[in-house]
Design a protein that fits this description.
This protein is mainly α. Helices cover 55% and strands 3% of the residues. It has a two-stranded parallel ribbon.
């Protein structure tokens, strides 16, 4: 609860104000939330000027009203699992080996990429699907682009456009004919939604909290043997000099690649510039006499 409250005041409120200023809109906003026990009380989720606040949805209505549950979360999960498979194939590792080396940092990057793949159209469509009656009638009547909105159809269309870029319609049809008989839609749907019922929070008793922060927690039963530290290899980060060499190779590859864009090349050049600056700053300052030799 304290983490969420800190995020609300230190991250959410300032960024919402900045967004509203850029849009030249009044600094008023509501954060709709469900009744998760990890959320603090409403009274603590209000800005000092009372213009930005959180509001809980009525109990037992989250799955029907909350826009995130109308397809936004589902799209995020589909993007995540799609990116996971793409990275797994690119890695040339077996499924078990790839998952074994995937750590929390890698998973966070996958989530970030998955969220970037949730389009504005998906978000707006899910809001209209869940809270359509709250929109202005004239605005709703004039906007027909979300009539019959289905997030699954939109996701399939967007993935098709990305996955089959550069292939003709004939190529796509042939691929679907070959793969179609091997795909079990029920199994796929189970894989995509298997964690829907997993808890997203844990309520701990006072005794459990005390034990978790105790220097010498009391165990009620036998403890599992600690993982052998010898099996964990902590690889030190590369030096700035190695980074420079790697980025120079990457830049030469990118500039000769079909996937190169001006933005990508500029971004990589900026990284190379930063790495060179870091390498210079870390190097030992040389003396004037170092540039001369005695005869």
């Amino acid at each position: 609860s304290s983490i969420f409250e800190d995020w609300f005041h230190e991250e959410f409120v300032p960024k919402v104000r900045r967004h509203l200023r850029l849009k030249k809109m009044d600094s008023k906003a509501i954060l709709l939330m469900d009744h998760c026990p990890a959320h603090p009380g409403i009274e603590s989720l209000t800005s000092l000027d009372k213009k930005i606040k959180a509001v809980f949805l009525p109990k037992n209505t989250t799955s029907k009203l909350q826009p995130l549950d109308q397809g936004i979360i589902a799209t995020l999960k589909r993007n995540y699992r799609r990116n996971l498979i793409v990275n797994m194939v690119d890695s040339s590792l077996s499924v078990s080996d790839y998952l074994r080396q995937l750590n929390i940092k890698g998973a966070i990057h996958l989530v970030g990429a998955a969220w970037e793949g949730v389009t504005e159209r998906t978000v707006r469509g899910c809001w209209r699907k869940g809270l359509g009656a709250a929109f202005d009638e004239e605005e709703a009547d004039s906007d027909t682009s979300f009539d019959g909105f289905d997030v699954q159809d939109l996701f399939d269309a967007e993935c098709r456009a990305a996955d089959f870029a550069g292939f003709s319609d004939v190529d796509v049809q042939q691929a679907q004919q070959v793969l179609g008989s091997d795909i079990d839609e029920g199994m796929m749907e189970t894989w995509l939604s298997f964690d829907n019922e997993e808890p997203t929070f844990e309520k701990m008793s006072d005794e459990e909290i005390i034990q978790s922060v105790s220097q010498d927690p009391v165990s009620d039963g036998p403890t599992e043997p600690a993982e052998d530290d010898d099996e964990i290899v902590y690889e030190p980060p590369p030096t700035a000099t190695k980074a420079v060499k790697g980025l120079e190779v990457a830049l030469r590859w990118l500039e000769s690649s079909e996937c190169a864009t001006a933005a990508k090349v500029a971004h990589l050049r900026n990284l190379l510039h930063d790495a060179k600056s870091d390498a210079r700053n870390r190097s030992t300052q040389r003396k004037m006499t170092d540039f001369f030799t005695k005869k």
